[in-house]
């Protein structure tokens, strides 16, 4: 009988090989976390509140704060009512413990507390410790994040919106990784971004300031990244000649932060799932493309976060280890062929904390 023929298994195997080659990439690729409708609606409510004209000075009502998942900034976040001096909002995006919290604690110091705010978006599916000190109770309501998915765009927008609503004095918004370290003192960073003679917030002329975000149009992988969701899927909202790539860690002015949380049109394309995950880095595409299309002259087109891509592995940059940490490394990482030095650097392994603390006061925070 045919079923007992020794040729049947071989025939079935040969028949299945083309099918296997066709569907294996999708089967073996990491499953992307979808953005659910409740999450989308929840974010939309937050973004609409943050983008309203009155968000500069409006405090959310207690009745809204008492609502369940939509209650983003609680009363402990409303810090800007009594101090109108311009601040920098540090937005930490993490899916692990903030291993370098002790170093950042030294960076912020005790005298600069009225010049900055901290916000942390931590993946709720991962157990993350709440550090003491300046990071304590600075965690915002967060949602799941996953590499190569639009969830990282949503997380960054969530941070921006929360910071916009929280404090009208927030003038610059710096997105920071848990693997980032400071390369200078807080005083140096503040004076680099904000003129120390800056007038009070009511007289703040933000058009003088630009966002520090990498915007690239000549990368060799640009076409593959553009078609990661399928060929020409990005049309008509995003023509290929307007598609840009860049770093996911950037520093935005308040007007650009508002632009990002107001945006709806491009998001409809960038939130689509990718078919080719190896070319899909939505958070590195959405922000550079949006700002390039809307206000290219308002951006520097370079980032102030130093990353070493010369030894990248699977899309990850070089990770510095303890034997590499030295004053010479810090001085090298600071160097930037522009009007300013790099302010931050990544990517450092958690066990670099002790050697970094050893040179913190004498090198890193000494300008």
From TrEMBL:
List the GO molecular function terms: glycosyltransferase activity
Give the GO cellular component terms, alphabetically. Answer: membrane
Q: What is the lineage of its organism?
A: Eukaryota, Viridiplantae, Streptophyta, Embryophyta, Tracheophyta
Where would one find the signal peptide in this protein? 1-24
What's the protein name? Uncharacterized protein
User: What is the recorded membrane topology of this protein?
Assistant: Single-pass type II membrane protein
Originating organism: Ilex paraguariensis (yerba mate)
Is-annotated flag, keyword Oxidoreductase? no
Task: Kindly list the places in or outside the cell where this protein is found, as annotated in its UniProt entry.
Answer: Membrane
Q: Name one Pfam family in it.
A: Branch
In terms of domain of life, where is this protein from? Eukaryota
Keyword Cell inner membrane set for record: no
Query: What's in the keyword line of the UniProt record?
Result: Glycoprotein, Glycosyltransferase, Membrane, Signal, Transferase
């Amino acid at each position: 009988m045919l079923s007992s023929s020794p040729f049947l298994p071989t025939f079935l195997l040969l028949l299945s090989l083309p099918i296997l080659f066709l569907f294996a990439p999708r089967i073996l690729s990491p499953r992307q976390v979808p953005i659910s409708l409740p999450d989308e609606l929840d974010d939309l409510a937050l973004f609409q509140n943050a983008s309203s004209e009155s968000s500069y000075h409006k405090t959310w009502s207690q009745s809204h704060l008492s609502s369940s998942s939509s209650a983003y900034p609680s009363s402990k976040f409303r810090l800007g009512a009594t101090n109108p001096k311009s601040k920098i909002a540090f937005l930490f995006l993490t899916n692990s413990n903030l291993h370098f919290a002790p170093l950042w604690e030294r960076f912020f110091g005790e005298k600069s507390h009225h010049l900055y705010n901290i916000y942390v978006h931590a993946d709720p599916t991962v157990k993350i410790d709440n550090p003491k000190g300046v990071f304590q109770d600075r965690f915002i309501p967060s949602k799941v994040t996953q590499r190569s998915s639009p969830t990282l765009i949503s997380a960054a927008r969530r941070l921006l919106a929360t910071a916009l609503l929280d404090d009208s004095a927030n003038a610059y918004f710096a997105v920071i990784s848990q693997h980032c370290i400071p390369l200078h003192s807080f005083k140096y960073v503040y004076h680099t971004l904000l003129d120390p003679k800056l007038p009070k917030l009511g007289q703040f002329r933000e058009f003088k300031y630009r966002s520090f975000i990498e915007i690239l149009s000549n990368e060799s992988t640009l076409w593959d990244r553009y078609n990661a969701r399928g060929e020409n899927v990005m049309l008509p909202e995003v023509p290929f000649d307007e598609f840009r790539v860049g770093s996911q860690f950037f520093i935005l002015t308040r007007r650009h932060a508002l632009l990002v949380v107001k945006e709806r049109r491009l998001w409809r394309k960038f939130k689509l799932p990718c078919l080719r995950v190896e070319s899909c880095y939505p958070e590195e595409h959405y922000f550079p493309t949006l700002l390039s299309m809307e206000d290219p002259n308002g951006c520097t087109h370079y980032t102030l976060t130093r990353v070493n891509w010369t030894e990248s592995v699977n899309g990850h940059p070089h990770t510095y280890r303890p034997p590499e940490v030295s004053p010479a490394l810090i001085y090298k990482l600071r160097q930037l062929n522009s009007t300013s030095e790099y302010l931050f650097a990544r990517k450092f392994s958690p066990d670099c904390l002790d050697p970094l603390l050893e040179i913190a006061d004498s090198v890193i925070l000494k300008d």
